[in-house]
């Protein structure tokens, strides 16, 4: 499996539907040796919502991150370079 970066930013912009949304997926280490997949989503320019999912193994977090990327790209989101 190809490795993905720890931080992925997706957006979906459609001016005809007044749609400007983002979806961010970050994999960060926790204090107990595991990792956390942090999902943040909402309208561009707003704070949005956030949900965290804990994993014991980094590979499990990477698989879950890839699954979310597949779901969102099927819905029209496109990957954006993270600065």
TrEMBL record:
InterPro entries assigned to the protein according to its UniProt record, in alphabetical order: WGR_dom_sf, WGR_domain, YehF/YfeS-like_WGR
Phylogenetic placement of the source organism: Bacteria, Pseudomonadati, Pseudomonadota, Alphaproteobacteria, Rhodobacterales
Domain WGR intervals: 1-83
Protein name listed in UniProt: WGR domain-containing protein
Keywords recorded for this protein, A-Z: DNA-binding
Organism (species): Paracoccus sediminis
Signal sequence bounds: none
Gene Ontology MF annotations: DNA binding
């Amino acid at each position: 499996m190809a490795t993905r970066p720890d931080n992925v930013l997706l957006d979906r912009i459609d001016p005809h539907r007044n749609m400007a949304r983002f979806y961010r997926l970050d994999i960060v280490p926790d204090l107990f040796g595991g990792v956390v997949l942090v999902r943040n989503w909402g309208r561009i320019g707003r704070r949005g919502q956030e949900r965290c999912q804990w994993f014991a193994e980094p590979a499990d977090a990477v698989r879950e991150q890839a699954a979310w990327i597949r779901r969102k790209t099927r819905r029209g989101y496109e990957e954006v370079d993270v600065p």
